[in-house]
Design brief:
It is built from two helices and no strands. The protein is mainly α. The radius of gyration is 14 Å and the shape is globular.
């Protein structure tokens, strides 16, 4: 299966990696960065990715709510 994930803002790559590790830690997955993701259940990897998206959407909504037009 091809990996179609593209970072649209390359400058954000490090922040996204940090967010991934932070969320994995919150979910109780230690050393997520050094774990072979192929050995983890897809559900577990999905939880990390899903929570990343949820956090990013919450942040964007908050920023939009505070924006003055």
């Amino acid at each position: 299966m091809a990996n179609n994930n593209k970072i649209l803002v390359p400058e954000a790559k490090q922040a996204l990696e940090q967010l991934k590790l932070e969320i994995a830690s919150e979910l109780g997955i230690s050393n997520y960065n050094s774990v072979d993701k192929g050995e983890l259940p897809s559900r577990l990897n999905g939880y990390v990715g899903g929570n990343m998206v949820k956090r990013l959407v919450e942040t964007a909504q908050s920023q939009l709510a505070n924006r003055q037009f």
